[in-house]
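INTERNAL AUDIT FORM
Audit reference: QA-55
Scope: verify that the stored structure record matches its stored sequence.
Auditor: D.O.
Record contents follow.
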Amino acid sequence: MDLALAPETLARWQFGITTVYHFLFVPLTISLAALTAGLQTAWVRTENPKYLTATKFWGKLFLINIAMGVVTGIVQEFQFGMNWSAYSRFVGDVFGAPLAFEALIAFFFESTFIGLWIFGWDKLPKKIHLACMWMVSIGTILSAYFILAANSWMQHPTGYRINKKTGRAELTDFWSVLTQNTALTQFFHTMTASFLVGGALMVGIAGFHLARKKHIPVMRTSLRLGLVTVVIAGLLTALSGDTLGKVMFKQQPMKMAAAEALWDGQAPAPFSVFAYGDVEKGHNTVEFEIPGLLSFLADDNFSSHVPGINDVNKAEQQKFGPGDYRPNIPVEYWAFRWMIGFGMASFGIGLLGLWLTRKKFMLPAHLRTSDDEVPYLVLFKNKALSPKFAKWYWIVALWTMLFPLIASSWGWIFTETGRQPWVVYGVLRTSDAVSPGVSQGSVLTSMIVFTSLYAVLAVIEVKLLVKYVKAGPPDLTDDDLNPPTRIGGDHTDADRPMAFSY
C-alpha cells in the first residue's frame, strides 16, 4: 500500500487538519472572553457609554467565535473513537479523566453563564450580569487547562502504570497529571499566546475603523487596550516559551535538536538562524548560526552540551528497539521559526503602535475641530506625521491580527509532529494507535467530508465576522444605559426590548 495513502497517514492528516482548524477559535475564545469582561467592568465602574458600546461590539465577535469553536471541537471527540480506537483503548483510563473534568466542570460551567450573559442584559442587575461574563472567562480558562493537561500527558506521561493483563495505561495519580511541569508550562505559554491573538485582533479591527475616522471613541479605547495586551502578552509569551523550551530540552531532546537541525551534539551548541542540509545523510550543507545561544536557551548555560538528532536517535534505538525515531526535520525546523517569527513580529508592531499612540502624538487643539475627529497616530512634536506613514501603519496593523494565529498554528504543529513517531512519548507509537478495522477508503472519505465541511464553516465564519466588523459598534438605547437594579428587571418582557440580540 502506498505509504502516503496508508490509513495511519490519512488519519494523521485528518486529525491535523481538523485540530489546527479548531485551534484557530480557541485562543480567540479565551482572550476575547477576558477582554470583553474587562471592558464591561470598566463600564460598570465608570458608567462611560463607550465602554458599554465596546463590550457589546467585542462580545458579539466573541459569541460568533465560540459558536464555531464548539461546533468544530465536537469533531475532535469523535475522532478518538473513529480513527484512533487503539489509542482510546490504551489511554482511556488516563486521558478520559481530564477530558471529563473539562466537559463536566469547565464546559457546562461556561455554557451556563454564557446563556445568562446573552439573555440577561435586560433582566439582571449590571454587577450580576458582569459576574456572569467573568464566569464565562474563568470557564474558558479551566477548559483550556484540563485539555492541555491531557495533551501534556501525551508529551510526558506521568502518574500512570501499565496493566500487563489488559495492556492498558491506568491512572494512579491524577494530581500528578494535572500539576506536572509540562502541563503548567504548556498552559502558561498557551494562555499568553492566546492573549497575543486577541490583542492583535483588537488592534487590527480598531485600526480598520480609525483609518476611516469612524467610531473614534470606542475604537481608540479598543486600540489602546489591544496594543497594551499585545505588548504584555508578547513579552510573557517569549518568557513562557523560554521556560517551555527548557522543559522540552530535558523531556524531549529530539524535538529540541530537530527545531535547530542540530545533527550531532555540541557543547556549546549554536542557535541556527538558517540551515539547509541532507536529511537522509544527517548533516547540514549550509549553516548560519549564533554560537552558544542554543546551550543557554536549553539549559541557562552558554557551555552546556545539547545532544543532536543522530545522538538521540541512536539512544532511542538502544532503549526502544530498531527504528527511526526522528520526526520530519524540515517541518520541525521551519515551524519553530515561523512560530517565533510571526509571534515576535506581532509584538514589534504592537510596541511601535503603543509608542506612536501616546499623548505626545495627539493633534493640538488649535489644529483640530473636535477631540474625536483625528485618531492618535497623527503627529510628533507638533508636526504631523507623513500621511503615507500613518496609512501604512493602519494597513500593517490590520494584517497583523493574523500573525499570532499563524504563530499559534505552527506552534502546535511543531509540538505535535515533534513527538513523532510517538503518540504517547516513549509509551505508544502512532502506528499502534490507529483503529485496526478502519479501511483506507473510510478514512479518506471522512477526511474529504470533514475538510469540505470545515471549508464551508470557514466561509460562514469569515462572512459573519466581516459583516459585524464593518457594521461597527451598535447604537445604545435607554434600556442599555439603565439596566434593572433587581433580578427580573423593572418591566415585563413585552415592555422591554431585547438589548442584545443576534
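Auditor finding: record pair retrieved intact. Residues 361-369, 371-384, 491-502 have pLDDT under 50 and may be disordered.
Action required: none
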